[in-house]
Amino acid sequence: MIVGVDIGGANLKFAAVDPKSNNEACHSCFFPMWTDANRLADVLVAELSSFGKIDAFAITMTGEMADCFIDRHLGVQQIAEACRLAATKAGVDRFGFYRSDGRFTRLTESKKETDSVASANWHASATWLASKFSVDHGILVDIGSTTTDLIPINNREVSTPSKTDHDRLCEGALAYVGCGRTPVCSLVSSLLIDGKWCPVMNEVFATIDDALVVLEMTSPDAEDLQSADGQPRTVPFAANRIARMVGLDRSSVSVDVAKQLSEQIVDAAKARIKQSFHAVDQGGTIILGGHGDALFDPPSGRGIIRLTDRFSEPASRCLPALAVAHLFQNNRYALL
Amino acid sequence: MIVGVDIGGANLKFAAVDPKSNNEACHSCFFPMWTDANRLADVLVAELSSFGKIDAFAITMTGEMADCFIDRHLGVQQIAEACRLAATKAGVDRFGFYRSDGRFTRLTESKKETDSVASANWHASATWLASKFSVDHGILVDIGSTTTDLIPINNREVSTPSKTDHDRLCEGALAYVGCGRTPVCSLVSSLLIDGKWCPVMNEVFATIDDALVVLEMTSPDAEDLQSADGQPRTVPFAANRIARMVGLDRSSVSVDVAKQLSEQIVDAAKARIKQSFHAVDQGGTIILGGHGDALFDPPSGRGIIRLTDRFSEPASRCLPALAVAHLFQNNRYALL
């Protein structure tokens, strides 16, 4: 059994791959790195223990950018150390960190060359998918809760000169827009309501998730309180959060009006993702995935591989974890 | 002694006015309504007790918009009830809530007509200042930590048809930009760095306060941890927070580069305030105040009253509290 993990800033994603049976099991859990970084090793141990006997542990991360770490270098070091501790406690000897050149590295190297280990999960996903689906030429569009990766592929390999998040932001290969956490006030500066433009309140009163809930583009969940005001992710509460953005609330904004506001918010998110797409697209097959895939309408006439058709919902959500598990297995756990 | 209070979403501001000696004492304290609403009455009691014998207690609020309240109506009711409790415990018989028509109202009325009591502090400030400085025709520009009030004055009275925050947002009389809490990602969508435009990360990694600290437009404070990452409000830490906005950190962004980024952020804030100013300005004297007054460059050729020249720093910061205390005293505690 190989376990892959994607240690993000807000979520931990796990994939367990059995190379004999080719069985896969994926799941994710909410893990707010910015408050819980010190609990990381313990949570990893508990998760690893749930998988039975583990032959190897493949790690990728983006959580080093959480602002509980004073800089990314120290973030990678602390996360890498938590992984080592967890692997030791869980009795896993072989573990490696994915690098943005497609190879895996040991603990000591990862703690030195932190730049190559930091935020490399997009590279793992694109590399593995290009190979798995034999995509010679194309682009991966992977829309998560916080960000969208737009990774050009050529000759079945990642085809961007960018290595870091900063480079990818500048290039367009990383759009800092997703389907979950993106604050409404970062997407729009005004909203049209009752025929008037109203500047939005620059507060995190609502996120794009609220707009998607109101528009029924995502499933509501009355048990889920991971919202801006800690109230349920249901249509009435989401509409109330959206209304707050223009200084109103449920007493004066109907769900219908909230829908009109939500459409403008979703359109703004789509426009930003589209802009990034056109900045990096080099033609070919579009691999479209992530649980925010509704935020991208592929141009017509292009071959499309929809990951929702190919993977279960948990696997799609844990794609980088699945990718590093397979890549580590494919290279026989070779470490730099 | 009359005590005025401005109950905001993030701060409580107090002003004590002695009508005999005309002595004034002002102070403010951080009070995050969104987490601490249930403590409001206790905090008010403690504060009121510190002022000695109180003849009257004048109240204005904006805190009802905090998203711990499901809507503004219930927010006003809960805050009003906390005020009643505090007044009773502190032995203060006469207390009133300021309304956006310039009058004070009792508890029962304020709990019914919540719209007129909600977010009326701007009206109190403008009304009192127009009278105090005999401004027949002009505009109050009051730049706080979260928002800027831009209130036209005519015939020594507030001259805007807007009553609510929503109306004022649409009109331009409320700009949701301040000198403290405004998230950088709500002000700019990209920053120019090393000759390249880099889209910012849509996270609250930094606020405009960080830009002002880096540019030395506000005083740093190593003891103050009210920042996005909970680290000190000093130039190095603020520069690190600004660097995070473009996916970098202190290891690759010098303070000089952080200054260039900060200038763009401050310019964006100034532009938004200027836009609102031009939307509502009707000429005449400009009354400029608030601890963010550096974010507005008044047009030349206009008479200017700078509140920093007229008030102490604490009084300037607690302006609405001072205003309601004086207005309540001036109308002999008359209640609707």
From TrEMBL, chains A, B:
Quote the InterPro entries the UniProt record gives.
ATPase_NBD, Hydantoinase_A, MfnF
Q: By its UniProt entry, which Gene3D superfamilies does this protein fall under?
A: 3.30.420.40, conserved archaeal protein q6m145
Taxonomic superkingdom: Bacteria
What SUPFAM superfamilies is this protein classified in?
A: Actin-like ATPase domain
Pfam families linked to this entry: Hydantoinase_A
Q: Name one GO molecular function term.
A: hydrolase activity
Segments forming domain Hydantoinase A/oxoprolinase: 58-325
Kindly indicate where the leader peptide sits in this chain.
Answer: none
The protein's name: Hydantoinase/oxoprolinase
Q: Which organism is it from?
A: Rubripirellula obstinata
